[in-house]
Amino acid sequence: MFDWIKENSTAFIVALIFHFLFFGALFFNWQMDKPKKIVMQQGDIIQVTSVDANSYDAEIKKIEQQKQAKLRKAEADRKARVLEKKKKQEQVRRQKEKKRQAEELKRQKAATAKKEKAAKKKAEQEKQRKKAAEKKKIAAEKLKKEQLIKEQQKKAEQEKQRLKEQKKRQEAEQKRKAAEEKKRQAELQRKEVRDRETRERRSKGVVKRHVAMIAQKIERNWRQPLDAPPKLQCKIDIMLLPSGKVVSVKVVESSGHLSFDRSVETAVRRASPLPVPSDSVIFKQFEVMRLRFEPGNY
Q1: Residues ≥6 apart with Cβ < 8 Å to 63
Q2: Is the pLDDT at 35 greater than 70, yes or no?
Q3: The CATH number of the domain where 284 resides is what?
Q4: Is residue 282 exposed (0-12), middle (13-18) or buried (19+ Cβ within 10 Å)?
Q5: I need a labelling partner for 100 at 20 to 30 A (CA). Which of 55, 81, 256, 259 fits?
Q6: What is the span of the domain harbouring residue 265?
């Protein structure tokens, strides 16, 4: 309340004055209405003045209206002053806000500039660091490459020397193996010759024995034709299976006597299967064998 009185002191004083005047008028009227003791003296002339009650009320009402008008004016002035004060305060607030925003913008710009400067500095430092690191990396790669080349050259030289020594060993081994192979081949050849000679001797004996056995069996199954003269002979080709079975028989050199030739072919078929060697190698000579058939010579 005291703050309100302080802020609206003029209006308060005006209202206070009007209240004093109002109460003063009321008090004055009350004194006027109070019956007075009249002391009359001889010889005095009494003059009585009458007061109209309506005019009194109208005066009071007028005073009251004036007071209300002054109060309304004071209130309007107060509101105008309050509004003006608010406007000024709003202007001050806006100015302060504008100033604050300007200072904030300035601060933000300064901070942004500071950040940009720091970022630029950091970027430059990073650039320098990367540049230095790149140089270091290039130098390291160059050194590594040189070392690698040296190692490769050393390995190439070692490999060359190893291959040279390996070639010498291989040549020596090849010579040794060639000599051993030559010796082995010579031994094999000698063995083959011996085996072949042995096989040939054995084969000749087996072949001769089986040829005789085949001729004998054919002769046992041969029937001399009645019209055939004695001491006839012919050559025949016999095709045989490994089992000795006769596949075919053919006279390749005739005896000159048809019935004799036919009797020999018949005897070969009757004698099937013929005794052939079990050795498959020797049998090759009997797959198609040529036989001179001479009865009485087996």
Answers
A1: 21, 22, 25
A2: no
A3: 3.30.1150.10
A4: middle
A5: 81
A6: 221-293
